[in-house]
Each structure stands twice: as C-alpha cells, then as structure tokens.
Amino acid sequence: MRAEPVVRGPVLAQMTGAEHTAKRKIVVRCFTGQALQDRLRAIHANAVELMAPFLPRGRVDLVNDFGKPFAVHVTLDVLGLDRKDWQQVAAWHSGVAEFITSPALTPERRRHCMECAEQLEAYLVPVIEQRRRRPGEDLISQLCTAEFDGVAMSNRDVTALIINVLAASTEPADKTLALLFKHLIDHPEQLAQVRQDPNLLPAAIAETLRFTPPVQLIPRQAEKDTVFAGTTVPAGATVFCMIGAANRDPGAFTSPDTFDIHRPYLGAARSFTAAARHLSFGTGLHQCVGAAFARAETETVAAMLLPRLDQVRYSPGFRYRETGLYTRGPVALPLDFTPVHGLG
Fold it and tell me: Which residues fall within 8 angstroms of residue 48, CB to CB, at 6 or more apart?
C-alpha cells in the first residue's frame, strides 16, 4: 500500500493466493534458468562498456560513475526498453524510490515523486501497447501476453509490475557491488584470497549481503493483535522487520559484527535462495524474485572488475558515508587503481 501511489498499482508483496502465484511466476521466468543464462553475456558487455572510459584514468567512483548506470542499463535490457533513455528513466525511478523508501516526505518532495511516477507511467503505456501488438522476448512482452484467470492484464497491472521490477532490481544492485569492494578493501587479506581463488567470490558476496544488506528493512502489517516480547502490536499496525539487525543476530552468526568470507555455515551456494541463512532477500512466499539474478549480476561484474583493478584503494581524502534507512549504501566510493589491460 505504501508503494502503490507511485508504482501505479498493486505490487507483488501485496498479492496473495492464486494472483500472487501466477504473476510471480511470470516475473521469475525472466530472472532464472535459460533466460538468466542468456542475459549473462549482456551483463558482462554492459559492465565492460561502462568501465572502459575509467580504466585509462585509474580512478572511478564505483557508485555514481559505474554502479548506478550499470544497474539501470541491465534492468532496461531485461524489460526490453531503449538504453538511450536510461538517464531519464533513472531520474523518474529516483523519485519513485524516494517515495517508497523515505519515512517522511515534505509536500514538495511528495509532489516531485508523484510527478516522476506519472511521467514514467506515460512513458511506459505506449511501450506496453506496442508490445501487445508485437511481442518480443523481453519481460514487458511476457507480461502483456500473459493471462490471469483467463483475462489479459490491464495496462495498469502491467505498469505496476514493470515499476515494481525496476525499483527492486536497480535499488540494491549498485549498493551491493560497492559494499563488496568496500569490505574487501577494508580486509586486504580477504581481498588477496579472492583474487587468488575466484571460487571464493560467491562467499564474499554472501557475506556482504549478511554483513551490510542493501535492503535494511521490510514493512509488514499485523493481521491481528500480537504480543512480541511483552508488547502488544495491534491489528493493522505497520511492523518494520529489521533485516540489518537479524543478519547480526549472535544466535545465528558467531562474531556477527566481523566480516568473514570463510564462515563455515554461511552457505554461499544457497545464499541466493529461500534456504539462505541471512534474510537479505526476505523469506517465504514473498522472497525476492530477483535473488538468482542478483547473484549472477554481482558475480559477473565483480569477476570482470577485480582482475582489471589492480592495487585498488580509496582515493586520497575520501571519507566514507552511507545514506538511507529502508535501503542503505555508500553515497560514493571513489577508488584509485592500477589498470590491467588486455582482458576479455
């Protein structure tokens, strides 16, 4: 309900029963299996292209120069939207994300966010109508041609799912990549181990997600009066489930405030599934549909960057700062490095 005004319709997290199962299945198909494998090459090509201007300089802001544009480019590819529009789509998305993730908005900011959502919807509706007439292999086409209870989804339904996917797949992506590099730079012995043995990369990503999840909380609504630790939460109240705190639970993780890619029970192989020990992708029926995609995206990009950025370190004078409550990550991550050329 919190997101619906800017998403322009109901989101997956609101849905239950057959509607949730059917619509979730459509979206999941575009982020798993052969569809995912087909996109890995495009993910790698996107990353190489975006990093190319910064390699000769030996300096890049991993958040603003690379991470944010990369996340939007990849999502536009999945949706089948024109990449040349990425800056405009990113600006609209920024307003949508601000509305969803800000605990309080001034009237002026609320108006700005609503205008972004309206303009994004106006951009999407002609695309949706075109895909209904001439569908392709992209996610928008699949949403346009799918049926629920024998009826095709309305433009409003499709728009809501597109914006849902856009927000969910771009908002955490640049944060996860930047946080991964931050933790490895802060722990040079673990960075050296990952460079020496690339098979450790999935564990480094899994530990990054546990240690500093890019999505810090999940809001839920109490269905009935419930008592937690002696306090009654009334029916209808909003409960903020703090993922960031759960992932530092000493009952679940030894030395939870230590970044350690060698945790024996971290379970890197299952860290992007519903069986994950951490809660960074949620859990249960509403576990993040893009978890497998997030793993492939982050692994592919990190595996491309690490060999190219030798002696990677923070740029002189850099002071680390994070922002965000609902989603949280570095404001910037300027890095200096010695470029390694000639890699495929």
Answer: 304
